[in-house]
Structure formats: structure tokens, C-alpha cells
């Protein structure tokens, strides 16, 4: 069993850390995992993304053309990755930053006002956790409890005061459930 | 020791340090910089020298000098930086002192870009510096393998008084994977009998690569070549996947190898009997296993992130006995598994030929795709 997630957004939206948290969780759960960022000038241009592959066996390619799921934190990310989601896969869209609907009807779309939710619980910086929660609420990948544990274990000490907010953000995101799409 | 999630560049740096690296000399270049950055913090922390040289030329010559003392030393860089080191590498080879080079290859030629590539295979595997010498070349495909091969690199360098290169690409440098770091080794205390340690009233030792007397130089050349024969006999490493019943064999190293693994699995799901040979030592090249596979297999597909450099080493072993096809992406473009799968399917569908050159056929196909 192998699943792949691409997380994409502006620099500063916590895209890379969201992917790392997912990777730490997979590691703690005894899975094989790879995390690979877009690096270099691409990041300076304002967009950043990372690809996370989670598997039960030795992982081949760390690069994925048609991931199981995409988290699109902003419009450029939606434009770039909408067509790439695997048929029957999950696309989580940050409705706060995107002014159009999703065109695909063969994937499960989770549209969530993540910025507003993050603000409600204390800080817009938790937007990545809201989006990650929304993914896990709609994809059988890793449990929220496992993610909580990974946060406890791997959040840098200086950020420990944000633990409750991050956990709350994950849960609020996970409440956004969308029905699965029947494959055509 | 538990596994931790760690970036390839950082993991190699920490592994080198734990393997008893006594001095590091380097110059920053993407996509290798985290390696140097990690050591810039960790080496002083434990009281060992870290030097950011004025250039790659400075760095490699500092490595040369430090290697002459018999200490564990290394440098690391990426393609254009390694080109600048070629003179020094040849001098190190000519002086027969051990040293480790980590090359995190990027897209080229020239300044190119900072994306992952394998275009420096020929430079590292078949020399790049002048003169008759070989580097032992280790090609990891994962962060764990990068860690393990870095430790091995120091042991092999010392065992054979030979240069050892760890040839990675930008994606292995930048990728995070779970890896178990090696235990801390104590620093070496035994001084090799060839090392120069300053004037202590002992015998006079000279380490140099200059040899103005051709017959004497030839004796040295013979010694190097015999040593290389010994390395070829003892140090071949590779990993095979699904080879037992394979009718078709994909050959790929490093990142191209692991991308091919995904394609091989997908082809297996379709019932295609295909396996993967992933050379771990590029020099010495795993000729014997490839020769055995040539007896059994119907055809080969070589996959690289370059224009077919290892391809020539494969062809030298297969020698026209079986068809060899090639697929590559260049310039920092990384192939997706489905591209490799398409090539495997093409191999199965045929027609196959041992005529002509696989590179010409590949270039014709690629020109249609990317014009």
C-alpha cells in the first residue's frame, strides 16, 4: 500500500512543515516515507511544495506525477496541481485563497475556508494544520491521534506553546467531511 | 539506534563526522550546501577543524595536504565545483593518499541549474582529472544508503589508499527519509607508515605526485592499476530487484534506479517479467552480474538522468549479445515512473534490435516529445 501527498502553497504558509509533520507521523507509525521539497529559485518565486510518499515497502520514486492527494493552499497551487490528482483521489482546497471552483468531478474535493478557521482558533499561522486535518478527515492515511503524538515528539521546543492550537486546528480541519466520488 | 527523519545532505555530513572525519574543507554550492552547513556547526562543537576555503581549488588542495598526514579528511561539492577540483583529485590519486569526495550532482553542462541530474557519471567514473587513475565510486539511492556508503567510503579510501567518491544527485541531498545514523567511532590513533607528520627525527618520508623519471613513474602506474584490479575483484556492490525470473532487465543507479523500481513494480502488476539491477558501485562496475543476466534476459533497458553515460559501460558487458535500449532525461529533468513504464512496455512489444545505437533511437523519440 502506497499513498502520496503533494502540499503546495505560498512560502510562509507552512507547506514544508506540514509535509514534515506527516512524514514524522509516518515514521513513528513504522511506515516507509520520503519527503522531498521543491528547492531553489522556485521557492523564491513565491510558491513552495513538497511531496510526501508513505508506504509499507521500500519506496521507489520520491517524485509522483499523479498523487493520491493534493493540498492546495492557494490559487497558483490549485492551477498547477488540480489535473494531477489521481482519479478517485482527494483535493483539499483552501477556499479562503481561491476564487474559483474545482473543475474535476472524478476526485473528492474538500473546500475549506482554512484561513478563517485558523484565525478563529487564534492565528492564521495554523492554516497548514487546518488543511492537513482536512486531508486526514477525508483520506485513510494516518490518524489524528498519531499526528498529535508526532506534534508532541517533533515540534521544536520553542514552539511547544502552540501545541494546543495546532491540535485544535487539525481537529477543526478534520470536521470538513466530503463524500467519496464513485469512480466512473 | 532509532531511525530519524533526516535530509540527505545533513545525514551524509553527520555520518562522516561519526565515522571519524578529522578535518573538512569545502566551499558552498547548491544543492550540496546543507552538508557543509551542518559540518560548519558540528565540527567546531567537537573540536575538529572545519574550513570554508576561498574556492573549490583551495578546498581540494587543503584536502590533499591534510590527507598526507594520514587523517580522515573529505570535501563535498556539486558539479561545477567538482570540475574545479579535478586537478587536485588527480594529484591526490598520483600521491596515493586516501580522501573522500561527495558530489551532489546538478543539471549541466556549465553553470546549468540546481536540479537533480546524473550528467557527471563519466567525469567521476571515468576520470576527469588527468592521468591513469580510478576513483572508487559509490552511488546511493536513498538517505540510509548515503549514510552507510559515506562510512564505507572512509574505510575503502584507507584500505586502498585511493580516492572514493560518493556520487549522489540533488534529490538525494534534499530529500528527507528515515535513516539510522552510525555510532560514533573514536578518532583513528594508528598513524599509517606512509603519512608525513613533520620532522620528529624519524625517517624522511616524501609524498608527492611528481615523478620525473618515466620508468619510475611507470612502476607507480603499474602499482595503481594492480590496486585497481584488486578493488575490482573485492568491492563490487549492487542491489537486484525481481531478477530471479526476469526476462527483461532495467539497469539504473541512484535516483534513476529507484524511480525505475516504481516502474518495474507497475510492470510486474501487468504480468511483465521485469527486474531491476541497481549498481551501487559505479566503479568498479558490477560486470559479472550483468554478464550473467545477459545469458538469461531477453533485453535490457538502461535508465539514467543523463544522455546515456553508464549505458556505454552496460554495452561493453552485453557486447551486442542482447538488445539494449536507453531512456534518459537530461538537464535536471527527473523522469516519472510512468515514462520508464512506457519504455518497459515498448521493450516487451518490440521489435528489438542489436543493430545501431540505442542512444540514436532514444534521441529520435525524445525529439518528438520535447522538440
Please indicate the percent range of residues of chain A in DSSP E strands (runs of 2 or more): 15-25%
Strand line-up in the sheet with most strands of chain B: 3-2-4-5-7-6-12
Shape of chain A: globular
Going by helix content, strand content and strand pairing, the class of chain B is alpha/beta
Order of helices and strands of chain A: EHEHEEHEEHHHH
- Per the principal axes of the C-alpha atoms, what is the gross shape of chain B? globular
Description:
- By secondary structure, chain A is α/β, with parallel strands linked by helices.
- In chain A, 35% of the residues lie in helices and 21% in strands.
- Chain A is built from seven helices and six strands.
- In chain A, helix 3 links the parallel strand 4 (69-72) and strand 5 (90-94).
- Chain A is globular.
- The mean pLDDT of chain A is 92.
- The longest helix of chain B is centred in the middle third of the chain and has 21 residues, at 214-234.
- Chain B is 44% helix and 18% strand.
- By secondary structure, chain B is an alpha/beta fold.
- In chain B, the strands form three sheets. In chain B, strands 3-2-4-5-7-6-12 form a seven-stranded mixed beta sheet, sandwiched between helices. Chain B has a five-stranded mixed beta sheet with strand order 9-11-10-13-14, sandwiched between helices.
- Chain B is built from 14 helices and 14 strands.
- Chain B has two domains: 4-199 and 206-234, Thiamin diphosphate (ThDP)-binding fold, Pyr/PP domains (Rossmann fold), CATH 3.40.50.970; 239-370, Rossmann fold (3-Layer(aba) Sandwich).
- The chains are: A alpha/beta (184), B alpha/beta (371).
- The interface between A and B is medium-sized, with 21 and 28 residues.
Amino acid at each position: 500500500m502506497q499513498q502520496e501527498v503533494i502540499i503546495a502553497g505560498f512560502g510562509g504558509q507552512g507547506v514544508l512543515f506540514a509535509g514534515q509533520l506527516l512524514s514524522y507521523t509516518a515514521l513513528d507509525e513504522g511506515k516507509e516515507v520520503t519527503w522531498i521539497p521543491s528547492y531553489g529559485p522556485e521557492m523564491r518565486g513565491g510558491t513552495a511544495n513538497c511531496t510526501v510518499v508513505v508506504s509499507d515497502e521500500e519506496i521507489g520514486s520520491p517524485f509522483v506525477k499523479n498523487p493520491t492527494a493534493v493540498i492546495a493552499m492557494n490559487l497558483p497551487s490549485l492551477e498547477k496541481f488540480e489535473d494531477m490528482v489521481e482519479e478517485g483521489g482527494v483535493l483539499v482546497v483552501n477556499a479562503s485563497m481561491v476564487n474559483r471552483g474545482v473543475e474535476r468531478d472524478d476526485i473528492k474535493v474538500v473546500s475549506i475556508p482554512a484561513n478563517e478557521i485558523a484565525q478563529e482558533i487564534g492565528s492564521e499561522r495554523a492554516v497548514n494544520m487546518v488543511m492537513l486535518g482536512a486531508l486526514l478527515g477525508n483520506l485513510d492515511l494516518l490518524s489524528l491521534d498519531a499526528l498529535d503524538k508526532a506534534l508532541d515528539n517533533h515540534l521544536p521546543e520553542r514552539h511547544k506553546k502552540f501545541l494546543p492550537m495546532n491540535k485544535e486546528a487539525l481537529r477543526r480541519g478534520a470536521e470538513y467531511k466530503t463524500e467519496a466520488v464513485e469512480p466512473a | 539506534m532509532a531511525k530519524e527523519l533526516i535530509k540527505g545532505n545533513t545525514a551524509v555530513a553527520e555520518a562522516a563526522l561519526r565515522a571519524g572525519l578529522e578535518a573538512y574543507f569545502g566551499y558552498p554550492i547548491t544543492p550540496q550546501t546543507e552538508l557543509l552547513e551542518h559540518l560548519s556547526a558540528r565540527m567546531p562543537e567537537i573540536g575538529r577543524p572545519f574550513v570554508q576555503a576561498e574556492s573549490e581549488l583551495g578546498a581540494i588542495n587543503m584536502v590533499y595536504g591534510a590527507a598526507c598526514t594520514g587523517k580522515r579528511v573529505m570535501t563535498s561539492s556539486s558539479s561545477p565545483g567538482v570540475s574545479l577540483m579535478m586537478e587536485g583529485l588527480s594529484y591526490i590519486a598520483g600521491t596515493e593518499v586516501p580522501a573522500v569526495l561527495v558530489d551532489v550532482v546538478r543539471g549541466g553542462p556549465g553553470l546549468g541549474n540546481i536540479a537533480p541530474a546524473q550528467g557527471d557519471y563519466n567525469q567521476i567514473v571515468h576520470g576527469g582529472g588527468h592521468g591513469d587513475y580510478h576513483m572508487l565510486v559509490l552511488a546511493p539511492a536513498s538517505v540510509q544508503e548515503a549514510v552507510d556508503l559515506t562510512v564505507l567510503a572512509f574505510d575503502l579510501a584507507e584500505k586502498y589508499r585511493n580516492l572514493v567518491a560518493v556520487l549522489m544527485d540533488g534529490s538525494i541531498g534534499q530529500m528527507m527519509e528515515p535513516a539510522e545514523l552510525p555510532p560514533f567511532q573514536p578518532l583513528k590513533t594508528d598513524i599509517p607508515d606512509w603519512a608525513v607528520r613533520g620532522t620528529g627525527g624519524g625517517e624522511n618520508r616524501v609524498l608527492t605526485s611528481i615523478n620525473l623519471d618515466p620508468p619510475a613513474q611507470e612502476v607507480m602506474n603499474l602499482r595503481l592499476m594492480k590496486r585497481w584490479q584488486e578493488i575490482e575483484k573485492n568491492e563490487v556492490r549492487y542491489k537486484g530487484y525481481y531478477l530471479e525470473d526476469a526476462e527483461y532487465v532495467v539497469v539504473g543507479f541512484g535516483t534513476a534506479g529507484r524511480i525505475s523500481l516504481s516502474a518495474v513494480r507497475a510492470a510486474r502488476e501487468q504480468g511483465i517479467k521485469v527486474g531491476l539491477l541497481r549498481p551501487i558501485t559505479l566503479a568498479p562496475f558490477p560486470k559479472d552480474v550483468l554478464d550473467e543476466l545477459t545469458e538469461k534476459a531477453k533485453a535490457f533497458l538502461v535508465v539514467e538522468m543523463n544522455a546515456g553515460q553508464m549505458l556505454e559501460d552496460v554495452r561493453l558487458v552485453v557486447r551486442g549479445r542482447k538488445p539494449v535500449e536507453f531512456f534518459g532525461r537530461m538537464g535536471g529533468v527527473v523522469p516519472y515512473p510512468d515514462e520508464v513504464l512506457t519504455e518497459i512496455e515498448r521493450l516487451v512489444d518490440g521489435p528489438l534490435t542489436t543493430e545501431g545505437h540505442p542512444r540514436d533511437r532514444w534521441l529520435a523519440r525524445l525529439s518528438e516529445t520535447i522538440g
